[in-house]
Amino acid sequence: MNYDNILTAEHGDGTLRTGVITLHRPKQLNALDDALMDDLGAALRAYDADEGIGCVVVTGSEKAFAAGADIAAMAPLTLKETYGGDFITRNWETLRVIRKPVIAAVAGFALGGGCELAMMCDFIIAADNAKFGQPEIKLGIIPGAGGTQRLPRAVGKAKAMDMVLTARTMDAVEAERCGLVSRVVAPGQLMNEALAAAAAICALSLPSILMAKESVNRAFEGSLAEGIRFERRLFHTLFATHDQKEGMAAFLAKRKPVFEHR
Ligand code: DAK
Fold it and tell me: Can 64 be counted among the known catalytic residues?
């Protein structure tokens, strides 16, 4: 597929490879407009459906993961167009339904919709120049793609309120300290680190990876009792897979497992 606002590439040499999507509107610091979000959604759906792909990495440039939704495109909109037209909900929901793991590799600015996009991914690896923030309040709006919901779950109410109400940014070190990102590395190491994490995922059994992702996501969408029950049923189900038998047999025989993703 050819895209206008993103670049795609595949990495790895195992049975399962990694799909890398690079946001690419350099002049606008990867500001997220409708065309870019359509491209991103199409690429994510294509990788999700591709049996040769086990994990996806979404990244931007060294200066900006994404500086937010495109302000020039949003500026003239009316209530009729936002509320009446359910403003850009269509192409912002794709990441939520992707079943394979998606890692955000973030360098530079991840602001507004850019921060929200990173938080929709399964985990974030950051370069030490990354800056996270929800500055929408400075534009007379509020976060509109989950920022008021996912940020407090990630960093707690106090820091989320501070960021959403004052528009202050959080650097990578603070973001790691409070749980927004999982690892911080030097900018030059960002893609190596993200690809190594993705390769580690690709080497494992895909059915158990998919179920683990689905189960962790339940922790954020329901009660603890319901989440634990869901986890238990998925755990039971994995005993019907070849890879569970292989993984445990390999451990007991002190050899490496050969997963067949079934
Ligand atoms: N939109 C459009 N253009 C942007 C942009 C943005 N968000 N951010 C930067 N640019 C453009 C600048 O206008 C500039 O263009 P030219 O003047 O060269 O033509 C170019 O990128 C370079 O930017 P700067 O010259 O400003 O670069 P600096 O290094 O000086 O500053 C900066 C970098 C990131 C600090 C600054 O550009 C900045 O503050 N940008 C705006 C950040 C921001 O406010 N982001 C939040 C936007 S609101 C929703 C989904 C999502 C959203 C809402 C609803 N639904 C699903 C309902 C999201 C809303 C938002 O994200």
Answer: no
132 - beta bridge partners?
110, 170
Question: Would you say the pTM of this structure is higher than 0.70?
Answer: yes
pLDDT band with cut points at 50, 70 and 90 for residue 89: confident
Among 26-35, 202-211, 217-226, the range scoring the smallest mean pLDDT is: 217-226
Distance from residue 48's CA to the centre of ligand 1 (Å): 29
> For atom 12 of ligand 1, which residue has the closest CA?
28
Share above pLDDT 70 across residues of the chain, in percent, rounded to a whole number: 100
113 lines ligand 1 (CB under 6 A): yes
Atom of ligand 1 nearest to the CA of 29: 21
Say whether 51 is catalytic: no
